[in-house]
């Protein structure tokens, strides 16, 4: 055997290994080797191909790095037209679709498949004898652009497929998309380079797959989900069967597709994903509903360029364009002065938005936002609306720049910006705006939970001088409240009763309610677990604080600063005298019994019937447990209530213990916590 033949065999072994590990990493999310070992395989491949360039093949993993620029894209005629979908915007339109399908097929009930509608760019992938030979955009549905070079750089697209009964010619359809994490990385890079920002991940993905220089596409971590095929596969009588075959061949599928036995199940799936869409690291803009039976699909056929057997249920938009009519500033409880965009009102994600945060002066400069600009605004769930980017092509010359004020809009005091911070602050601790924000925070649900102490009441009691600090809340009298606008005796008595109930809440909630910078709910729990009392906490030096797990130098510095200020110490003495907070009482030698969940981590998904999620989290923390924000291999327990989200599937895939509500309650009541 000569050197060339030996090299060819070695190259094929390397390519086969790399293809296998690409599928395990990019498709199955179950890598079997380290990044270092993978890199070593890849380097061996590159080195050998450099020595034998005549042995480089189009399906080699080395071809994912991208080639040089081309002048233009060629035109591709699709073997089977890439049809668009009719849209449904509410449940009634889905019900009407189901009625049309049942009437046309003369069946009483239809089995559907519901799939997430990825917000990306539709693509077609052509394979000849199992080798990827061409990739194209949807275009007008009949003809698209040849973007083969760019799609070769997408790591989860198999360049070769092996499997039983792979057709000689195979064309699959999918959606190219960009994760939110990668979108942020690219926009950060473009901002640093002074380049225009992408408006959203879809815009970024579309711009990437249509680069004339595929080396640019290679640097952007795109991915693809395959959702369909242009032919019938052997042994596949349903759409879901076809997906299963494609998955076995190594194609990347979205794991959330569900068989729905009827339209009621479809409606439930759509309702679930209205709430769960923000759990994903990629954007979806709807749900695609398809008749599962391929025979029924053929019977139903198509009209114009849309199939009768499928429809897209559109979710409310989380991004819109609107106009910045003004930029004002708001003052927070720590004195942070935050620019806020006043917007022409638009409905986003089911609610009307008229303001959006601009974070700080540097962010305005980075995004080049001007008063009068047309901008993209993003909002999802309960997240504060945010201006993403400017539509510079909409400018007409009337726009004007924002100038950060030099004086506080609330108290008129001087504003100050440290050289090591992006935030401008009002340094007057008596500033009414800061006092109001501190009171709101202290009374909030996750802090001392004083129901009735909302924004309107806080505004009035501070403006009238009835409340100048937190302790004044507990000195309010019935006649004080009755002097306020729209305040009746019943409501006033209820507010006073709720204020009284807040005395003696958990020490962690009290510490969180004090509003110490960088001390959130979790850090407050950590501090209480290690100190058990305010007196102990305020006596600790910065060095002693940083010795506590999870307390870094910046958090320690802010805690130390808070307890070094005379006004804060005086306020704590007042609150102690009013019996507002209590230290943690642990019987000596019995700490393990009092904190049976110490060292265990919990996360919740779905709805609990016996308590709110906030109440459940408080129970866990009171017993020494820790609440985490996401599913990872380090999570101890996932508590699943009714209608659980995507966290449940991820937890099961990682082998994490899942507790039902009854099991969770048994654990809280002293059951097995191993």
Summarize the structure.
With 674 residues, the protein is α+β, with helices and mostly antiparallel strands.
How would you characterize this protein structure?
The chain has 25 helices and 24 strands. With 674 residues, the chain is an alpha+beta fold. Helix 23 links the parallel strand 21 and strand 22. It folds into six domains: 54 residues, Orthogonal Bundle (Helix Hairpins); 228 residues, D-amino Acid Aminotransferase, Chain A, domain 1; 97 residues, Beta Barrel (OB fold (Dihydrolipoamide Acetyltransferase, E2P)); 70 residues, Orthogonal Bundle (DNA polymerase, domain 1), CATH 1.10.150.20; 71 residues, DNA polymerase, domain 1, CATH 1.10.150; 78 residues, Rossmann fold. The strands form six sheets. Strands 14, 15, 16, 17, 18, 19 and 20 form a seven-stranded antiparallel β-sheet that branches. It has a five-stranded mixed β-sheet with strand order 2-13-10-3-9. The protein has a four-stranded antiparallel β-sheet with strand order 5-4-7-8. Helix 1 packs antiparallel against helix 2, helix 12 crosses helix 13 and helix 16 crosses helix 17.
* Stretches with pLDDT under 50, minimum 5 residues: 586-591
The count of strands amounts to 24
Q: Assembly state here?
A: single chain
The SS-based structural class is alpha+beta
CATH architecture of the largest domain: 2-Layer Sandwich
Beta-strand proportion? 15-25%
Which CATH first-tier class of the largest domain would you pick? Alpha Beta
Shape: globular
Rg over alpha carbons: 30 Å
Average pLDDT rating = 86
First and last CA, distance: 61 Å
Specify the helix fraction band. 25-40%
**How many DSSP helices?**
25
Largest sheet: 7 strands, antiparallel
Number of domains: 6
CATH superfamily of the largest domain: DNA ligase/mRNA capping enzyme
